Amino acid sequence: MAATNEIPCHYFTNDDGSVKVRAIAFDPKTLEEVKKDIEEYKWVEKDFLLASFPKNGTHFMWEIMTMLLRGSAEYIKDPKVACMMDMFPLKKTDAVFPSPRVLNTHYRLDVLPKEFRGRKTVLVVRNPKDTSVSAYHHEKNIHSVLKKDYQELTFSQYLKSFMEDKARFYGRYFDYVEYMWSLKDDPNMLVIFYEDLIMVKMLSY
């Protein structure tokens, strides 16, 4: 497990030395700023933390939580990435989203500094079958820009990596869920299943 001063970064280096993160290009200096801000961050009690494995409904849940905080169902035009602490410097988040706000991360809480643990946290969990399919298409679209071999990557090949490769983005899905599920009885942790969110959305029509 990474120490707090060794927060893992899962990025891809472009030919010009800049780094591509989920279709957003940052220079290496910005990435160091992201890591430094996480390590030095002082939690604001009015804020909420949204935790989820990639492709588990993070954006969907973030929209809901932010609308509730704002007391309005109006579509949020401000960029969600400003609250994505894995890729946006936390010290710059205030300018876009002042507290109270919903900060979100794909990291397991035991990877992050202790400052982020025991906070008001919403964990979103999605069926691994749907997660793997969604992640396959998402990552294939991103990586095909950087690595030509991804253009012909089959789902069967991808699934093997999804199931077994601990060096993937944020580690294995199953390791992530196993650890985060162990926190489900924390009084500050609310666990929500992605499938329940979708069902509520369907029933609302």
TrEMBL record:
GO terms for molecular function: sulfotransferase activity. It comes from Bugula neritina (Brown bryozoan). Residues 46-198 form the Sulfotransferase domain. It comes from the Eukaryota. Belongs to the sulfotransferase 1 family. Keywords: Transferase. This is Sulfotransferase domain-containing protein. InterPro entries: P-loop_NTPase (IPR027417), Sulfotransferase_dom (IPR000863).
